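In the design runs reported in the main text, the only information available to the sequence generator was the tokenized backbone. The following block is the verbatim input for one such run; it is reproduced so that readers can re-run the procedure and compare outputs position by position.
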């Protein structure tokens, strides 16, 4: 068996061409240029790199971007004030608060301050609630990108046992909800899960989202499974050990080039969707 490579980089490139045409059509029809506002608090180099990648993606499809950089000493109240300004700005269609923020900031309060109409990164409690109930809302960007990737490659989800490793409110939990909404049977594992290897061994679909390099061992994964690695660590290592999997599993995402490009693609796609819904954009 030779695993199907779920190439997020290639799919994102193809979708960007479609988005570029859609943005042009939107503007030709009288809409203003969609604008994504990105807030970065502090000077973490990895976060700065991620923000620049998002700005570059906006430019490639003809969307505007607004970069707000705040000092590391910014308070919760100061950040809330900036978010409020962007909520009220008719030119801004989407708001992204780069995670993580400095520890003195109440990140959840700031996420939830983003109006749901502009929550294109799918980080608000209200958005999560609506999405998990099957109602209209923007999904968290990484899980939304993964779902788009699985759909593109015709990976069957209904009736399958999916194991999600990680319970982050912007990755693991929304990923589990999206899979459940797609009629998968879902198990969520985390740092206090007992018999982790045995649970992984049951999975038809595995999503690694623990943030620890190669925590999930290749030997735990059964033949024929679909392996999605949402982790990235120095040296191109993911959360899932890949040794030998390419000859045993049905499909897997590369690291890098799998999930990452689809996260950014979901973000800009949802920003365009927001622009189409907001009368001011």
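Verbatim output:
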């Amino acid at each position: 068996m030779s695993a199907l490579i779920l190439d997020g980089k290639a799919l994102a490139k193809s979708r960007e061409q479609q988005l570029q045409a859609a943005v042009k059509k939107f503007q030709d029809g009288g809409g203003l240029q969609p604008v994504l506002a990105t807030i970065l608090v502090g000077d973490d180099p990895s976060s700065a790199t991620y923000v620049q990648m998002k700005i570059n993606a906006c430019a490639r499809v003809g969307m505007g971007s607004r970069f707000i950089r705040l000092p590391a000493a910014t308070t919760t109240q100061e950040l809330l004030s900036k978010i409020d300004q962007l909520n009220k700005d008719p030119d801004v269609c989407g708001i992204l608060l780069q995670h993580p923020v400095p520890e003195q900031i109440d990140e959840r309060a700031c996420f939830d301050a983003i109006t749901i109409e502009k929550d294109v990164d799918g980080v608000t409690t209200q958005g999560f609630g609506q999405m998990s109930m099957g109602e209209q809302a923007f999904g968290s960007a990484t899980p939304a990108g993964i779902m788009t990737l699985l759909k593109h490659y015709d990976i069957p989800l209904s009736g399958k046992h999916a194991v999600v490793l990680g319970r982050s409110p912007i990755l693991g939990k929304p990923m589990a909800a999206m899979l459940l909404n797609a009629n998968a049977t879902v198990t969520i594992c985390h740092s206090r899960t007992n018999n982790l290897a045995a649970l992984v061994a049951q999975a038809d679909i595995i999503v690694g989202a623990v943030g620890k390099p190669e925590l999930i061992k290749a030997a735990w994964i059964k033949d024929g499974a679909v392996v999605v690695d949402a982790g990235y660590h120095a040296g191109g290592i993911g959360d899932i050990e890949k040794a030998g999997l390419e000859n045993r599993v049905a499909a897997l995402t590369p690291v890098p080039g799998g999930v990452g490009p689809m996260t950014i693609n979901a973000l800009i796609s949802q920003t365009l969707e927001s622009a189409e819904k907001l009368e001011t954009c």
